[in-house]
Write a structure and sequence with these properties.
The chain is α+β, with helices and mostly antiparallel strands. It has two domains: about 1-30; about 30-130, Cupredoxins -  blue copper proteins (Immunoglobulin-like), CATH 2.60.40. It is built from one helix and eleven strands, in the order αβββββββββββ. The chain has one helix spanning about 1-25, and strands at about 30-35, 40-45, 45-55, 60, 65-70, 75-80, 85-90, 95, 100-105, 110-115, 125-130. The strands form three sheets. Strands 1, 2, 3, 4, 6 and 9 form a six-stranded mixed beta sheet that branches.
Length: about 130
């Protein structure tokens, strides 16, 4: 009898987990991804969240130019493929190693760079953030 009750409890937990997972997955269905697959945009109310996936490796960023709109909530996910690089945007006072989140509230063109020394090409590891 205890064996059957145990199986029923496990089945309920599994089914509940599947239901919760599917509910959470359907909430993200409003994400639109650009043709490069490197960024997405989620609109919730009056706030637009722009998610950018960037690769940091061997003294370069891909993509090296990021364009967002003023007012966007920006999430930059950094895929450090060879060592910890990260992104620093000194003019905005921002820095992160695995990710960087901020609201783009200042229009302009800003240089970003690697905040951790990563070898001989470190000085040239830069990119551009454009807030329009």
């Amino acid at each position: 009898m205890k064996y059957i009750i145990g199986i029923v409890v496990i089945a309920i937990l599994v089914l509940g987990g599947v239901y919760i997972y599917q509910s959470m997955s359907s909430d993200n269905s409003s994400t639109a991804v650009n043709n490069q697959g490197s960024s997405g945009r989620v609109i919730q109310g009056d706030v637009t969240t722009k998610v950018i996936n960037i690769v940091a490796a061997r003294w370069q960023y891909t993509p090296s130019t990021i364009t967002v709109n003023k007012g966007d909530y920006v999430i930059i996910n950094i895929n450090n493929t060879d060592k910890d690089h990260g992104i620093s945007i000194p003019d905005l006072g921002l820095s992160g190693i695995e990710s960087l989140e901020f609201t783009a509230d200042k229009v302009g063109t800003f240089q970003f760079q690697c905040p951790t020394f990563c070898g001989t090409g470190h000085r040239n590891m830069t990119g551009t953030l454009i807030v329009q």
